[in-house]
Please model this.
Amino acid sequence: MSDQHSHDITAFALSRRAFMAGAAATSSVGGLAFALAPTGPAWAAENADLRDLPPYGNGTLPAGVRARRIANVNGLTVNVIEAGFETPGRPMVLMLHGFPNLAYSWRKVMPALAAAGYYAVAPDCRGFGRTTGWDDSFDADPQPFLALNMVRDQIALVNALGYRSTAMMVGHDQGSLLAALGALIRPDMFPRLTLIGGGFGGAPSFPFNTANGAPVPKPDFTNAELDAEYAKLNPPRRGYQDYWASPEADVDMKHVPQGMTDFFRAFYYMKSGDYPGNQNLQPMHAVHSAKEAAEQNARMPEYYVMRRGVSMPATVAAEMPDAAYIKACKWMTEAECAVYGFEYSRSGWTGALHEYRHRRNNAYAPTVAEQLTFSGRTIDVPSQAIVAREDWGANRTVGGPMNIGKTGFTQFKGVHMVERAGHWAHEEQPEQVSELLTAFLREHA
Model:
């Protein structure tokens, strides 16, 4: 571990004596109430490495938002943040984070949901943050990390919290896939859906009517063909999803030269509305060859189509904002950025990277096979998408964000644009996102 990497942890460290002083069922740090973890021999053995940690968020959670850990959730001990917990029985809004975020990413919109009368809950998903009980090895059994088991994680969490259903499921980035599948599979439990930063095209489908002569659909090109065309560009490039799925990415993220907090500063900046490469976006158009796709995709920032042979830490380090920007950044303060740096320095990236190795890898047969059970099924609950104006995450799809919801939904209520934000809309512009969430709940009660 490098000196800078170690600093990301030690700068946050609280001594065991300081942390435990005055500990009771509930404690307070910096004026913020937080719940202590459950106790017992089994829980203590699993979570021995967490006992000396500072409170989740290190005092940056807003007033009325607390963290606690919940045991026996589909084999996990799940770390959550929650708001609106003071009044039992409030309708629940369950919020699922994206990659490489944490439950912490929802901290800014939870107070508004609580003020509107809801109980807002956000977990660190399997493989992330302070949620434990998963295999952190690169070659871990992939089955627990597939999308349907991660939906089961959410069903188990809702039940553990004493609920049979929620008011709404909200997902950002990878959380959008899980939220959409939750609404598709269990509309009784997840009767409203909000997707942030992307859409859902529906479950994969079996070929239809082929026994009567209909052709078997085939893609215009394979991922291997696209990768070969990326390699021919000047400079040679590589798709970010292929990178994140690779063994070298797992190694790279164990040895981040600039330190994890600086990595997150540059990474967050590069995908935000502040980054020049994300402004004045023009949605992608349809292409029919790997060569056309590579040439079109190459106009995206290098986070998406990386320089071949260059790691993600090196990619974002080249775009590190200056000290004046960092000091002036209100939507991601130095203290907030350090939370991400600390948590990923402690937990590592291996669990988070299963997102790309398994859930996003269409070449990995179980990824498709598990979802084919729902071939042809639509999402039949009121649904909306919230998309930031300067987010390539939605604009890199053909036709851009306004095409979200045109297939796979029967009650899609529209796409709502967030101004002056990139991929992190709920952190960059929490007021706009909070209003869109609460308005949707009011209008579709």
